[in-house]
Amino acid sequence: MFKVKSKINSIKIQGHPNLVKDLNSGAILNINSDTINRARMKKKLDAEKEKELAELKNDVSEIKQMLAQITKKMVESNG
Fold first, then answer.
1. What is the pTM of this model?
2. Could you read off the pLDDT tens digit of each residue along the chain, which spans 79 residues?
3. Do residues 67 and 60 make contact, with C-beta atoms less than 8 angstroms apart?
4. Among 1, 27, 28, 72, which one is least packed by beta carbons within 10 Å?
5. Minimal CA–CA distance to 10: which of 19, 18, 22?
6. What backbone torsions phi and psi does residue 38 show, to the nearest 5 degrees?
7. Are 21 and 11 in contact (CB under 8 A)?
């Protein structure tokens, strides 16, 4: 995939060297690539942690179900 960098019609924001205002949309844009890359990495790590947590919750739920089945079988065999 090719990334095309378009020329944005923008102006710098006084007192904020890493921010510009897109004159077409009015959006404030961060032009510091290090900050952008760190934010992307954090977002990726957060998504991975969220996935891992969901998997752990699923595993715990399965273990609880298995324990309930084992307990039921033990009670039935002793009763």
1. 0.60
2. 545 456 779 999 999 999 999 999 999 999 999 999 999 999 999 999 999 999 999 999 999 999 999 999 999 998 6
3. no
4. 1
5. 22
6. -65, -40
7. yes
